[in-house]
Amino acid sequence: MVAADFIRKIIHLDMDAFYASVEQRDHPELRGKPLAVGSAQGRGVVAAASYEARQYGVRSAMPSATALRKCPELLFVPPRFSVYKEVSRQIRAIFAEYTPLIEPVSLDEAYLDVTENLKGIASATQIAREIRARILAETSLTASAGISYNKFLAKLASDYRKPNGQFVVRPEQGLGFVEGLAVGQFHGVGPVTAARMNQLGIFTGADLRAQPVELLHQHFGKAGRYYHAIARAEDHRPVVADRLRKSMGSENTFAEDLTQFPELLAGLQPLIEDVWEYCQRSGIRGRTVTLKVKFADFQQITRSRSGVGGVPSQTVLERICRELVEGLFPLEKGVRLLGVTLSNLDNEQATAGRQLTLNF
């Protein structure tokens, strides 16, 4: 039984400009230059940007034409998702030496609960430092870490010393840390929501904490209770390790809300690649394709399409996903999360009840 004063030790590990850093690692001639992973052709979109490119205002999910206007000397390289996934597997293997409680958020970030860890190390700060050093030694890539007593604060803390740093928010510091932040810095508050909060006179964590939960619920729906809690540095969500499911799915939460059709397609492509790679490796196929969409105000919807047999190819999966996305337009609000899932699995492993999951 967990004591009332039980305090978790949670680490949020986040790779620094992951796709772009892998490309700069593997291609020394690109180091120190503004780099975008993606395509500069047609309606191309930036999948990732190096820190050199970010200084010009280039960001992921930005149309390539816009990125080039901001940084005319921007270099584009095509994405190599198979390489990124292999590096991600290396990093996850390092995590697994310290704790089985690993909750991947994407290929380049994860939460770790190290309250009770496999090495018996009392200090979560020391564990984060060791893991970052191991990642650098084994992959030549840097990672940042946030350490705190809940997931919300750990996520905030990992952004505080980027790149290649770490930051701790201790239990006695949580409330003060949140009070001084702009609401736009909160994980889960995108630009659209931040603007709505500003219109209500809510600019900082302290302003948000001063609002009654009824008002927040009135203006932000179910998300209002979440905002009410995080303004008090409260987040009781546990770190949930990979769970087996009767479907194959991949999803990603974006740093900024997506509003344009090319942005949504670019955000979906890595998810489709992830799901289809597992299909190829496992031999499993699914009859139902489901698109999951979470909007800026946390409203969540799904759109599905089922066929007689399993989806036969990645090309077909891409076409179905594109058609499902087209059905969302015109958008009334930004999109903060996209997910792709295949279900109604059609092989012996599925009928035997084996559950499968992927986390992008």
TrEMBL record:
Cofactor entry: Mg(2+)
Marked site: Substrate discrimination: Y19
Active site (record annotation): E109
Annotated ranges, domain UmuC: 10-190
UniProt entry tagged with the keyword Nucleotidyltransferase: yes
Keyword hit for Magnesium: yes
Coiled-coil blocks: none
Catalytic activity: DNA(n) + a 2'-deoxyribonucleoside 5'-triphosphate = DNA(n+1) + diphosphate
Residue numbers binding Mg(2+): D14, D108
Location in the cell: Cytoplasm
Lineage: superkingdom: Bacteria
Subunit structure: Monomer.
Family assignment from sequence similarity: Belongs to the DNA polymerase type-Y family.
Record protein name field: DNA polymerase IV
The encoding gene: dinB
